[in-house]
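Working notes for the structural subgroup meeting. M.R. asked for a predicted model of this chain before we commit to crystallization trials. I am recording the input and output together here so anyone reviewing the notebook later can reproduce the run.

Input as submitted:
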Amino acid sequence: MSIKIATSFLAADFSNLERDIRAVEDAGVDYIHLDVMDGHFVPNISFGAIVVDAIRKHTDLFLDVHLMITDPASYIQPFADAGADLYNFHQEVEGDLGELIGQVKAAGMKTGVTIKPATSAETLFPYLSDLDLALIMSVEPGFGGQFFMPEVLPKATALQGEIERLEASTEIEIDGGIGPQNAADVVAAGVRVLVAGSSTFKGGDVAGNVKAIRDAGLSAL
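Returned structure, recorded in token form:
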């Protein structure tokens, strides 16, 4: 049993993306986590499929795309064409989640669904058998560099219990304020994919930061 580190490129230097790609590759991260925001579902605006396509041209790392957008159905194919490995949309969007999951799978991508801090874990239970990943937000989505909300950890425990009951293979991911100081706590709760942005790039020592997060997380296994 192990854990995975997903570096959030919301904290990367967008004037030096190729340099930061090389840095996280050299540091041994497992995923690049890409936060797509439309200015409607969340107040911030980030980037779209064109940036995912540009990143894909420079790395073979798994691209974990987190869609904080109101209409994820309309962008499934553009992100598939851009090279996204996982298409992760929010439970809180309008529409039939089961239908959206099917559309993502049909486009050849793995499927994730995210819940905000105020959304219960149980809302994902009906879909876990069809999901590759369930993401718990441990900050309010929209901006990087926020403080971790420990009150979301029982959601990870609840999800893990249901995944085990279903004998599913869904990974639990957490995003928001993750670093060496709380990695053990989230792993102990059942999380296996840790999204880390600011704590990865802090001080420029990407390799050292990733090792510190991974070592802290592994200590809970």
